[in-house]
Predict the 3D structure of the following.
Amino acid sequence: MKIFRFIIPFVILGLCGHQAKRWIDPKEPPRRFSAPPTHTHVKAARITPTSYTVSVASQGTVRPRTEGTLNPQVTGVVVEVSPNFRDGGFFEKGEVLLRIDKRDYENALTIAQATLTDAESSFEEEKALAEQAAEDWKRLGRKGKPNALALRKPQLAKASSNVVSAKARVERAQRDLDRTEIRAPYAGRILDQSVDVGRLVTPGTVLASIYAVDYAEIRLPLSNQQLAHVDVPEAYRGENVSRAQSEPEVELTTRLGQQEFIWHGRIVRAEGAVDTRSRQLFVVAQVDDPYGRKDTGQPPLKVGMFVRAKIQGKTMERAFVIPRESVRHDGEILLIDPENKLSRHAVEVAWRDSKNVVVTGGVKPGSLLCLTSLPFAVNGASVIPDIEGEGVRMLESQKPRGQGGPGGKKGGKGKGKRPPGGEQ
């Protein structure tokens, strides 16, 4: 019994080793199936030359074209203000915005008019005396030509100058009286009211800050690359910028709450110097009647509002417009040849925006562009393109073939012997 206990473990180990050898090294090798070649399905489109108008993006803040301060030209106490003379109030050209106490100026005008009447009376008297002196010279039979003093010409000239001086004082008194009414120099709006009834004002006192509402302006910065694609109205020495010159259209947008509003304007001029810090040139967009009521219910384009701008740029002829995501970071695109093989091509990029890239060189009309992003694509890789407007283009060599074991048919199952132990 002790001998059997000693032999049995060795017998079991031998049998297990023999069976393991059969599994590891079978006499009949297992059947192998070759996997069919795989082809990547991609989206594709044919690119053709077209006309493309560049849209240049910028942004800026709305400001008035004309603004300034309202100042009196005479001294006095404000006795009346217009209901429109308040922050945000609108006014029309020539409207009386406030009045200064005018009683002293009415008295000054009365005195000046009385002085003028006295001067005119004195002039008439001197004129009569001069005529009488000339008659006396003739009546007395004196010989020779009478001198100026004998004809009272100096006295007459003095009386005449007194009349002129008195008239000037009357005109000045009348102007001062008129200036007690502060009138609007243009149609505009009150930005900041500084005085009210009872305030003593003098020449130079700021009554209010005002601005015109006929136009609104927006300063839009453009880089050198953007300037190359915009026809900016320029004036040279000895000539003025006229409406006959090109004035690119501009679309201004801003969001108020959940709504986006659009205003339309035009580029009217460029500023006189490039900004030394940003190295950008500011062009000025102008919007007509920014506070006019619109039938669409659009709000006014207010001063200080931030807006985004799209400036109509130059038009490129025979340009290729390619989706931005189809252009690789190295400036290359993927084209598909007639054999459905990929090839990388470097292109000349003339313009790019958030959606498109405009190419002017490095591609031929009718080329098939791969639209699917393939980060690790290599030249010669086989693909199956789904072409916009044409459908899937699959070559004969790319069609799937039948698969099976020895003696099998297309789609059938192999009938060879299974290897010992079965397939793993």
Q: What stands out?
A: The radius of gyration is 48 Å.
